[in-house]
Amino acid sequence: MRHELNPAEQRHLEGIFRGVRHTLLNRGLYRQRKDGGIQEVAWKRTILLNDLGIVAFEVDVQRLPVKIEQLLNPEVAHQMQASLSGRRVKVTNSRGLLFAVKLEPDLPKPKVRLPRRVPLDLDAPPLQKGPGQAQGAYLIPIGQGTDGPVWHSLIETGHILVGGESGSGKSTWLNAALAALLATHPPQELQVALLDPKEVEFQAYRGVPHLFAPLATEVDDASCLTARLTAELDRRRGLFSRAGAKSLLRYNQRTGERLPLILLIVDEVTDIALATGLKSPFYTDLIRLTSKGRAFGLGILLATQNPKAEVLNTLIRGNMSTRISFRVATAEHSRVILGESGAQTLPRTIRGRLMARLDSKLDVLQGFYITDKEIAQLTAGLRGSQPSPLTELEEEMVRYAMSHLAGKFHIHKLAAAFKGQIGMKRIWKLAKSWELRGWLIPGPSRADGRRVSDELLSLLPGPSSRQPEEG
Predict the structure, then answer these.
(1) Rounded to the nearest 5 degrees, what angle is found at the Cα of 216, between the Cα atoms of 213 and 218?
(2) How confident is the model over 77-111, as pLDDT tens digits?
(3) What contacts 24+ positions apart, CB below 8 Å, involve 282-287?
(4) In this model, does residue 285 exceed pLDDT 90?
(5) Residues 314 and 272 in one domain
(6) Backbone φ, ψ for residue 277 (5° rounding)
(7) Same domain for 275 and 360?
(8) Which DSSP string corresponds to 62-77?
(9) Do 170 and 87 fall within a single domain?
(10) For the chain, how many structural domains are there in total?
(11) Whole-structure pTM value
(12) Could you tell me where the beta strands, DSSP code E, fall in 146-212?
């Protein structure tokens, strides 16, 4: 091979060429002759592009000892790159078969370990633009990356789909996102609609002024909530049409109103959809909200630990612009959430580790952590009082148990006393939930029932004038 180069450049390029040639020989890309010799890949010329920092070696395709497809195999370029101290190698076959090699090796990026735990500081959300950070309204914390914290605006993320098995950190992430929004936006700018079938994730948010509707926990509540949201969707569509606006921001600018963004958060959406049925009003309303809601200022955040393709079908997933997955049980679950496998390999020992598809690429981040105490302090401040996770009816039931049932939470007697306001099944579920929290103390036998604890009594804000009807 002839080169119009000075001696130093000649030696440098010859060293690179030796690495290219040896790689082809090591992979067996030659033909054995009958006389015992070998026919190697023949070369036509060397092309030096100093301005691009590239040298290209052109193959003589008329004298190939092997099929051209073998030379185009990506594994060839990968092995060649490794033998050339990390120099990038690209094989092209557009205007001749060329092995293009970068003159300088790529310096490996220093490995930066993600932290195992990242506390969320509600007093200092990111306000400056930086790597992975956003600026503007409705910011939520996505996670900590190797380049710093990653926050995105709900205006940019669109609808969000979150998956993760039990104990992976999904619920903590949901609470961190919700707390960050409530801490930075008044009810005039943001309203939230919460659907919590497990009755444990969002109980602390009862009574906050940002609620679009009371916290929904039952199947019937879910259908009523989505029905109210679709009615609001229709109302806003009329408002936007009359104002000639195509987005919430444009509507508020044109009319001078402060129409709030509404965020629906559904925990365990798969379980609710299967319980109601895929032809139920809840499910059909959910599909309509995901397809039409974003344009009218209605955001959707769906979470599940049991992703099923028949529930999260293309009508729903196709409108979920942002995908976030904590560790899941199978590669199929990962594909349902992210569109590809990978989340099943996240470490089970690191709670909060996640994969996020925020645009075309997939990022591995560490989710933010917030404590129950911090959430209680936040919601108490929003309510302007000490935290009280009880509804007004639940408070009345506790008072009735103290004044009429000697402090015993008798399910049958309470169901009779509050007939028409709450059913026995609901009281039974409430009692089981409160017992797990330590709010009810079980007696020595089943007949003794459960006793109201001092902790539950401390949650009552004061005496009530309402009295239930005697049954």
Answers:
(1) 150
(2) 888 888 887 788 989 887 789 999 988 776 555 66
(3) 282/219, 282/222, 282/223, 282/226, 285/223, 285/226, 285/227, 285/229, 285/230, 286/226, 286/316, 287/315, 287/316
(4) yes
(5) yes
(6) 100, 145
(7) yes
(8) GG-SS-HHHHS-HHHH
(9) no
(10) 3
(11) 0.62
(12) 148-153, 160-163, 190-195
